[in-house]
Each structure stands twice: as C-alpha cells, then as structure tokens.
Specification:
This protein has one domain (3-160). The chain is built from five helices and two strands, in the order H-H-E-H-H-E-H. It has helices spanning 3-23, 26-52, 70-88, 92-117, 127-160; strands spanning 56-58, 120-122. The longest helix has 34 residues, at 127-160.
Length: 161
C-alpha cells in the first residue's frame, strides 16, 4: 500500500475521531479532557521510548519531522479516552471490561490491518505484551480521573455557582 494512501487513511481516522468527540458533548469533554490529555501524552511518550527500544515502529508519518504516533494520540486515543470515561467511569468493573475489549480490538484486528497496510509493526514486543501495556495505562487514566480530574472539575463547578 502506498504511503500516500496510508496518510489519507490516518487523516480520515483522525477526522472521524474528532467528529465523534464533538458528539460526546461539551460537559463530557470538559470533565474528561484532562485525563484524556494525560493519556495522550503518556501514549506519545511511550511511543518515543518504544521506538528507541525497538518494541515497534511506525513507518507512516503524516508530518515528516514528527513522531508517527502523533495523529493517533490527537485522534483515536484522545477521543476514545473521553468516550470510555463518559460511558464507564464510576463503574470500575464496567470500565475494566470496556478497556479490555477496546484494547483487544486495537491489539489484534486493528494492529493486523495497520501491519498489512505498512503503517505500523511490532519488532521486539508481542501483542499480549502490548495488551498488558494498554491495561496498565487504562488503570493510570482511571486513577488520574479519580484523583486529579474529578477534584479539578468539581472544584471548578463550585466556583462558578
């Protein structure tokens, strides 16, 4: 598959993610954006380390001088994190279940598609290890929302009233 088509697919994926993000609603975005941004920064940082350690490589880059994960962190991960928190936060077991499903989808069929397209491939990391990394990050995002996001959001709400 050509790099040009891959870039187009990634851009379309970003636009779809942003469209769905708008549908989440202003209050959900306001409440869950800090935890989602935290997750996006974490995923971006993890990718920088992962490429140095040869865990995986992203071969298609939207912008030549940026890290290949950038469109995913600004699109799917940011939007997906808000949606996951919106529908499952405050019910920890549901949150864990939803994250396991989403992570399994990303780790297996989504990865297989992007590997086939030549966008991304694992080098020294196995898919089950990637699933474990995703699960750990989901727990960190939940903790961030509970201990930093919620107190910030609710203290902001009380100062407005």
């Amino acid at each position: 598959m050509s790099q040009h088509k891959n870039k187009l697919y990634i851009l379309v994926l970003m636009l779809i993610s942003w469209t769905f993000l708008i549908l989440a609603g202003k209050e959900s975005i306001k409440r869950y954006l800090p935890a989602s941004l935290f997750m996006s920064v974490l995923v971006y940082s993890e990718n920088v380390l992962a490429e140095r350690l040869k865990w995986w490589t992203i071969t298609t880059k939207i912008f030549p001088k940026t890290n290949g994960i950038l469109p995913f962190t600004l699109g799917v991960f940011l939007s997906g994190s808000i949606w996951i928190l919106k529908f499952s936060y405050k019910n920890f077991y549901l949150y864990v279940f939803v994250n396991i499903l989403v992570d399994a989808f990303f780790t297996y069929p989504f990865y297989s598609l992007f590997k086939k397209l030549g966008v991304w491939r694992m080098v020294d990391l196995r898919q089950y290890q990637l699933s474990i990394l995703f699960f750990i990050k989901s727990l960190l995002m939940y903790a961030f929302q509970k201990y930093i996001g919620d107190p910030f959001y609710f203290s902001d709400e009380s100062s407005v009233s």
